[in-house]
Design a protein that fits this description.
heterodimer, A: 228 residues, mainly alpha, 2 domains, 12 helices, B: 281 residues, alpha+beta, eight-stranded antiparallel β-sheet
Chain lengths: 228, 281
Amino acid sequence: MPFGQSRQKAEFEALALPYLDQLFSAAMRLTRSERDAEDLVQDTFLRACRAFGQFQRGSNVRAWLFRILNNTFINDYRHRRVEEKIIGEIPGASASRNDGTADDAPDIEDLADSRNTPEDDCMERLMADDILRAIDQLPLDFRMAVVLADLQEFSYREISEITGCPVGTVMSRLFRGRKLLRQALRQHAIDRGFLTASAADENAANEAETEESSPVDLNEYRRKHQVR
Amino acid sequence: MKCPDFHKMLQPYADGETDAREAAGITSHLAECSECRNAVRRQREMHRILLRAAGQSSSLNPRPSAAFKSRLLKNLNETSVEHIYPLPIQKLLPWTWYKTAAAAVLALTAAGAALALSQSSEQTERERRIVLYAKDSIDRHQRRLPVEVSGTQPQKVQNWLQGKIDFAARIPSSLNNKASLVGARLSNVRERQAAYFVYDAPDERRLSLFAFDAPDLEVQGGKKVDDCEVLLTNQQGYNVVIWKDKEIAYSLVSDLDEQDILELVPCDGEEEAKAITERTK
């Protein structure tokens, strides 16, 4: 073993291994299979170890590891399973909007009450697995953005570095991903009887107001307001 | 500023991505606009719900198993931090271009070595790349990853590969009748997507054949024999043979000695291996 090799190796392990759980959790959301997640995380670590010589000491290890995870996934794993969802089509998200409004209401206390209840109270009651499943059904680019921002709490700048996309693209993927996710969760809440379809419709209508205008590039916004 | 102007800023605001001045402007708007306030609240609530869901372990969200962790540590132990630049030149030598026929091997060795010695810097770069492909193939081979599809029938493997790789790989059912197909998995060689075929020799020796699309890998310049140029390199105790067939690169890794591995190369311009070539898309 070349001189310095074992020291570098120890340094790598000390820096990288603490992120094993986080990387694995993200890998689960990306691959949706425990076996693939294990392979992906292992490939990520081995690749990171080999490339550790090029890693800038003192820079963001966590983002660096996630970038390797992202690249490895895109290169090796994405093709394993044909992405079954077409962008914007989450099964069940809009399917039963028009049916069963009044009929399935009886066991929901009273409509006025449901209306006053913030929708998120219903979402609170959703099972963790329902939520994870809804994330897993997002189209890949959106899922990646949501996983990195909401589950791993990376900043826009870091997500941009990890995915190699401009910040504006990150924002718009995040925006659309969250919107699709909300639709899917709302549908789950209806299916579970936590929310009536009509209350959901109203919520959706309220949201449409604020969400219609879609995201902007933060820089564009800043440029515009700098002038004033 | 009108309300719709704020709409665009609500997501970055809720994510804490606005600077202090922007945040102050939005905060004062939120005080008087329940619609925007609700939008921010909804996003923050959802974030909290997602975080909480991700924090609970379940079959959909398992923690890495102890078995996996120990496997990872073991594999990590066998991996080393690479120092790619500059590659010691001795490792590149001797470079030899072989014909698959055993008789030709001896005759060509001298010519190949001479060629290697007279390398220009361009050639060095080319060889460096070849070595990296070879080393990465060895790396995958060493890990003895399980096959994802098993079977001795190339057609079955071909069907499995359908739609998973975006190039046409040729899958011989055997390596010149000396080693038979066991199965395949998806892999990669140096960032390139690869189909990884596993063959077993009668002595239970495992051979790895990788097929990948690598336009930057040049096998030309050696001896052209039967429309097929073959490169052989020895790295880390393994022999790796690299060739191209219909523009797809192949690397075959084994600890067999040079002559034996060359006899396995299913590339000699003849259709003797019942090869299946089909464009998978």
